[in-house]
């Protein structure tokens, strides 16, 4: 959420917020500004959707999806500023930030970079209201967060393909972003059985407390509706994890 500005961007956010139960709100790093954050927080509260901070590299040109060679301490400082701004705006409209999920290239780096994961876990633990950390069940960030006594929620992806190692297929590769029907089937398998079919056809165990649908994907609103509809048709309840 909050990655597009103006009436068109706000309308897209509002449409998605009618479907999802938790919203990753851009905090001004890879995208977003105070106006877009305020619109997203207000709309989320009106719909009972949990507000999550989605901080990332300060790299709007590449939408936060390119690795930057920054020291962990510098990254933690930048993320702290982004989260604090969103928390302030959320409070102004009567809400609060309940969880945090790093964005893009930073998200993937935090899964393997133990120094960065430790710096982020320290940042999150020192916040006045320690948020739930949304991250894959396995990885450096989950380990560091749990070591600091933070609650973690395991994240799975409805609209992205997985490789045989249980990692997301790189976006530049064919088939990395799933179409509506594929995403719906993958979501149900993740939610009901904790499994995913990898790109090579193997079946992997993959714990998931929350399922992600990317708001910037083509047809994101229709895809989100299809995912939620399929999950509910399978007899499962969709609700916020935090």
In short:
The chain is 43% helix and 14% strand. It has helices at 6-17, 34-47, 72-92, 104-112, 114-126, 140-147, 180-193, 220-233, and strands at residues 22-26, 50-54, 97-100, 132-135, 152-157, 195-197, 203-205, 210-212.
How would you portray this structure in words?
The chain has helices at 6-17, 34-47, 72-92, 104-112, 114-126, 140-147, 180-193, 220-233; strands spanning 22-26, 50-54, 97-100, 132-135, 152-157, 195-197, 203-205, 210-212. By secondary structure, the protein is α/β, with parallel strands linked by helices. A six-stranded parallel sheet has the order 1-2-3-4-5-8. The chain has a two-stranded antiparallel ribbon with strand order 6-7.
Task: List the SSEs and their pairings.
Blueprint: H1 6-17, E1 22-26, H2 34-47, E2 50-54, H3 72-92, E3 97-100, H4 104-112, H5 114-126, E4 132-135, H6 140-147, E5 152-157, H7 180-193, E6 195-197, E7 203-205, E8 210-212, H8 220-233
Helix pairs in contact: 1-2, 2-3, 3-5, 4-5, 5-6, 7-8
Q: What key attributes describe this structure?
A:
6-stranded parallel beta sheet, 8 helices, 8 strands, TIM Barrel, 242 residues, alpha/beta, 2 domains, two-stranded antiparallel ribbon
**How would you spell out the order of helices and strands?**
HEHEHEHHEHEHEEEH
Shape: globular
CATH class designation of the largest domain: Alpha Beta
Task: Please tally the helical runs, counting DSSP H or I stretches of 4 or more residues.
Answer: 8
Cα-based radius of gyration, to the nearest Å: 17 Å
- In percent, how much strand structure appears in the residues? 5-15%
How many separate structural domains?
A: 2
**Structural class computed from helices and strand pairing:** alpha/beta
């Amino acid at each position: 959420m909050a990655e597009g500005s103006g009436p068109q961007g706000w309308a897209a956010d509002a449409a998605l917020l009618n479907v999802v139960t938790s919203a990753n709100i851009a905090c001004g790093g890879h995208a977003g500004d105070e106006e877009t954050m305020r619109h997203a927080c207000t709309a989320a509260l009106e719909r009972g959707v949990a507000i999550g901070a989605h901080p990332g590299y300060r790299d709007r040109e590449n939408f936060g999806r390119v690795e930057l060679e920054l020291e962990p301490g510098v990254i933690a400082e930048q993320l702290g500023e982004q989260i604090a701004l969103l928390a302030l705006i959320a409070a102004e409209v009567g809400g609060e930030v309940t969880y945090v999920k790093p964005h893009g290239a930073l998200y993937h780096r935090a899964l393997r970079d133990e120094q960065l994961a430790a710096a982020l876990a320290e940042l999150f633990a020192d916040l006045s209201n320690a948020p739930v950390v949304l991250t894959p069940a396995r990885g450096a960030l989950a380990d560091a967060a749990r070591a600091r006594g933070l609650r973690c929620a395991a994240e799975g992806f409805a609209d992205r393909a997985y490789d045989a190692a249980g990692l997301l297929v790189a976006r530049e590769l064919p088939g990395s972003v799933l179409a509506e029907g594929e995403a719906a089937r993958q979501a149900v398998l993740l939610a009901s059985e904790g499994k995913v079919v990898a790109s090579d056809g193997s079946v992997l165990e993959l714990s998931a407390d929350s399922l992600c649908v990317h708001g910037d994907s083509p047809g994101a609103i229709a895809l989100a509706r299809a995912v939620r509809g399929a999950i509910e048709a399978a007899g499962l309840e969709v609700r916020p994890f935090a």
